[in-house]
Amino acid sequence: MLASQTKALHQLNKYYMDRVQTRKMAINASLLEIVQIVQDILKEVEVQEPRFISTLTEVNGRFEGLEVIGPQEVEIVLFLNQMGVFNFVDDGTIPGCAVLKLSDGRKRSMSLWVEFITASGYLSARKIRSRFQTLVGQAAEKSRFRDSVKMVCDSNEVKLRIRDRYSVQITPAFKCIGIWPRSAAHWPVPQIPWPHPAFVQEVKTEGFNLYSRECSSLITKQTAMEGDAFVMNFNDAEDRLLQNGCRKKCLSILKSLRDRHLDLAGAPVNNYHMKTLLLYECEKHPREIEWVDMVLFDRINGILLQLISCLQCRKCPHYFLPNLDLFKGKTAASLDLAAKQTWRLLRELLTNARSLDSL
After folding, report:
1. What is the DSSP string of 38-60?
2. Sign of the torsion formed by the C-alpha atoms of 326, 329, 331 and 337
3. Which residues pair with 67 in a beta bridge?
4. 98, CA 20 to 30 Å: which among 2, 133, 319, 351?
5. What are the tens digits of pLDDT across the range 153-172?
């Protein structure tokens, strides 16, 4: 048993150095180019509209609010000042979404975002996004990089195409520090010992984010509030939960496997699905001894098995918001194809001791 684990670890470490680190270096090189161009555009946006202050700054070697979606796709989050005059409302009307409503007794004029507040007192995510899209479009035309940047106008999201190679989405957002949404009140599950209560408190105190992003794909029933709603995002909480043991290493390997073998038409499986299933795997294996390099191969196989199960059931619940299905909007055909491809990948890993040399 120990000999086979040692061989598997050797193969994984070799794969990590040859494939994963190469992927990371390529992405980092791309990010330097992307960030330079986006920072230039956001500076011009800030000149035109000081409420949209660029928060794309480097902190400890990482760019604040930058999320790598894939090798040539990133999302950059612009954190705005909420000014404390809104209440957070999460009543479950729109799965995965919530609204910001003027506090009782507060007047619109007391808000920094006065013209984006609806007659009902809601801060409209759609209105903010629409204004921001106009500003970014104007700034891109003035930019010294204008020959390398194109606005993608297929929705009211703010999307850029850089050098005809990179897709960049810029998303206005608000930080919600010190509060936790009712939709995620079940977490953590009482019977499961992971994460430790002190860790849970730390995560909940840090809070979550509200993204001004289209949420129509998340909706089962159209509501008047749809355009005003913000999408709840837990990236910071998820990253904090994955910081111990070999969890981050596990995620990096899963991302590399996905990019190389599960990058299919219609994008049925993305890296966020991998991250979500990794979090569920942490609950199944709550002890830190189960997250050391020697058993990393077992954890990866377990996550791929769970991915196949989710694809076959055509449902992948969000880790914090189980009523939100991350496969919603994906076609049955694309999910079936992904299940078959994942099974091929897993079978190769299980039956060929040297599979990672060629994967």
Report:
1. HHHHHHHHHHH-TTS-----EET
2. negative
3. 75
4. 133
5. 888 899 999 999 999 999 99
